[in-house]
Design brief:
This protein is an all-alpha fold. Helices cover 74% and strands 0% of the residues. It is elongated and about 45 Å long. The chain starts with a helix and ends with a helix.
Protein backbone atom coordinates (compact mmCIF):
# COMPACT_ATOMS: atom_id res chain seq x y z
CA UNK A 1 0.00 0.00 0.00
CA UNK A 2 1.34 3.43 -0.90
CA UNK A 3 2.06 5.97 1.83
CA UNK A 4 -0.80 8.23 0.69
CA UNK A 5 -3.25 5.33 0.78
CA UNK A 6 -2.11 4.36 4.26
CA UNK A 7 -2.53 7.93 5.46
CA UNK A 8 -6.00 8.17 3.93
CA UNK A 9 -7.08 4.94 5.62
CA UNK A 10 -5.67 6.09 8.97
CA UNK A 11 -7.46 9.44 8.75
CA UNK A 12 -10.74 7.76 7.78
CA UNK A 13 -10.50 5.36 10.71
CA UNK A 14 -9.67 8.19 13.12
CA UNK A 15 -12.65 10.18 11.88
CA UNK A 16 -14.92 7.17 12.27
CA UNK A 17 -13.72 6.60 15.82
CA UNK A 18 -14.28 10.25 16.75
CA UNK A 19 -17.75 10.38 15.21
CA UNK A 20 -18.69 7.10 16.91
CA UNK A 21 -17.59 8.49 20.28
CA UNK A 22 -19.54 11.69 19.67
CA UNK A 23 -22.73 9.66 19.12
CA UNK A 24 -22.81 8.33 22.68
CA UNK A 25 -25.30 9.89 25.04
CA UNK A 26 -23.93 11.30 28.33
CA UNK A 27 -25.58 8.53 30.34
CA UNK A 28 -23.83 5.92 28.17
CA UNK A 29 -20.44 7.48 28.86
CA UNK A 30 -21.27 7.58 32.57
CA UNK A 31 -22.34 3.92 32.56
CA UNK A 32 -19.13 3.00 30.73
CA UNK A 33 -16.82 4.77 33.16
CA UNK A 34 -18.71 3.48 36.20
CA UNK A 35 -18.43 -0.02 34.78
CA UNK A 36 -14.66 0.39 34.34
CA UNK A 37 -14.35 1.64 37.92
CA UNK A 38 -16.39 -1.30 39.25
CA UNK A 39 -14.19 -3.74 37.31
CA UNK A 40 -11.09 -2.04 38.73
CA UNK A 41 -12.47 -2.38 42.24
CA UNK A 42 -13.38 -6.03 41.56
CA UNK A 43 -9.70 -6.71 40.92
CA UNK A 44 -8.20 -4.32 43.49
CA UNK A 45 -10.05 -5.54 46.58
CA UNK A 46 -8.78 -9.14 46.54
CA UNK A 47 -5.25 -7.91 45.87
CA UNK A 48 -5.52 -5.53 48.82
CA UNK A 49 -6.72 -8.36 51.03
CA UNK A 50 -3.75 -10.50 49.97
CA UNK A 51 -1.28 -7.66 50.53
CA UNK A 52 -2.77 -7.02 53.98
CA UNK A 53 -2.69 -10.72 54.90
CA UNK A 54 -6.49 -10.85 55.23
CA UNK A 55 -6.66 -13.44 52.46
CA UNK A 56 -4.12 -16.13 51.54
CA UNK A 57 -1.68 -14.98 48.89
CA UNK A 58 -2.09 -16.81 45.58
CA UNK A 59 0.47 -15.68 43.02
CA UNK A 60 -1.56 -16.84 40.00
CA UNK A 61 -4.73 -15.09 41.16
CA UNK A 62 -2.83 -11.95 42.13
CA UNK A 63 -1.04 -11.83 38.77
CA UNK A 64 -4.29 -12.30 36.84
CA UNK A 65 -5.95 -9.49 38.76
CA UNK A 66 -2.91 -7.22 38.30
CA UNK A 67 -2.96 -7.89 34.55
CA UNK A 68 -6.66 -7.12 34.38
CA UNK A 69 -6.18 -3.91 36.32
CA UNK A 70 -3.37 -2.95 33.97
CA UNK A 71 -5.65 -3.43 30.95
CA UNK A 72 -8.45 -1.46 32.60
CA UNK A 73 -6.13 1.39 33.59
CA UNK A 74 -5.79 2.52 30.00
CA UNK A 75 -9.59 2.74 29.73
CA UNK A 76 -10.23 4.86 32.81
CA UNK A 77 -10.35 8.30 31.21
CA UNK A 78 -12.21 7.22 28.05
CA UNK A 79 -15.65 7.64 29.61
CA UNK A 80 -15.06 11.21 30.75
CA UNK A 81 -15.89 12.76 27.39
CA UNK A 82 -17.06 16.35 27.07
CA UNK A 83 -20.79 16.54 27.59
CA UNK A 84 -20.87 13.67 30.09
CA UNK A 85 -20.72 15.98 33.10
CA UNK A 86 -24.45 15.37 33.58
CA UNK A 87 -26.99 12.82 32.49
CA UNK A 88 -27.04 10.40 35.42
CA UNK A 89 -26.04 10.40 39.09
CA UNK A 90 -22.27 10.55 39.36
CA UNK A 91 -19.49 11.41 41.80
CA UNK A 92 -17.36 12.99 39.10
CA UNK A 93 -16.37 16.53 40.06
CA UNK A 94 -16.50 19.43 37.60
CA UNK A 95 -12.70 19.70 37.87
CA UNK A 96 -12.43 16.70 35.52
CA UNK A 97 -13.55 18.97 32.71
CA UNK A 98 -12.35 22.36 33.99
CA UNK A 99 -8.88 20.92 34.71
CA UNK A 100 -8.70 18.37 31.91
CA UNK A 101 -4.89 18.46 31.87
CA UNK A 102 -4.73 17.67 35.60
CA UNK A 103 -7.24 14.86 35.21
CA UNK A 104 -5.30 13.41 32.28
CA UNK A 105 -2.12 13.56 34.35
CA UNK A 106 -3.83 11.69 37.22
CA UNK A 107 -5.24 9.05 34.86
CA UNK A 108 -1.84 8.69 33.17
CA UNK A 109 -0.18 8.22 36.56
CA UNK A 110 -2.56 5.39 37.39
CA UNK A 111 -1.85 3.79 34.00
CA UNK A 112 1.90 4.15 34.67
CA UNK A 113 1.69 2.40 38.06
CA UNK A 114 -0.21 -0.71 37.00
CA UNK A 115 2.56 -2.24 34.83
CA UNK A 116 4.83 -2.00 37.86
CA UNK A 117 2.29 -4.04 39.79
CA UNK A 118 2.22 -6.67 37.05
CA UNK A 119 6.02 -6.91 37.12
CA UNK A 120 6.03 -7.22 40.90
CA UNK A 121 3.29 -9.86 40.76
CA UNK A 122 5.35 -11.84 38.26
CA UNK A 123 8.30 -11.79 40.67
CA UNK A 124 6.23 -13.20 43.53
CA UNK A 125 8.29 -11.07 45.93
CA UNK A 126 5.87 -9.68 48.51
CA UNK A 127 8.09 -6.68 49.33
CA UNK A 128 8.04 -5.66 45.65
CA UNK A 129 4.32 -6.39 45.43
CA UNK A 130 3.53 -4.24 48.47
CA UNK A 131 5.59 -1.35 47.11
CA UNK A 132 3.99 -1.54 43.66
CA UNK A 133 0.51 -1.98 45.12
CA UNK A 134 1.13 1.09 47.27
CA UNK A 135 1.97 3.07 44.13
CA UNK A 136 -1.28 2.00 42.50
CA UNK A 137 -3.32 2.88 45.58
CA UNK A 138 -1.58 6.26 45.87
CA UNK A 139 -2.47 7.06 42.25
CA UNK A 140 -6.10 6.01 42.88
CA UNK A 141 -6.27 8.17 45.99
CA UNK A 142 -4.74 11.15 44.17
CA UNK A 143 -7.38 11.02 41.47
CA UNK A 144 -10.25 10.42 43.90
CA UNK A 145 -9.08 13.21 46.21
CA UNK A 146 -8.99 15.75 43.38
CA UNK A 147 -11.63 14.60 40.94
CA UNK A 148 -14.27 12.59 42.83
CA UNK A 149 -16.91 13.72 45.30
CA UNK A 150 -17.22 11.60 48.42
Amino acid sequence: MHMRSKLAVALALAGTALSAQAQFKPEEAIAYRQGIMKAQRWNLVPMAMMVQGKMPYDQAVFLTKAQRLNALSSMTADGFVPGSEAGAPTKARPEIWSNAAGFKQAADQFAAETPKLVAAAQSGNMDQIKAAFGGVVKSCDNCHDNFRSR
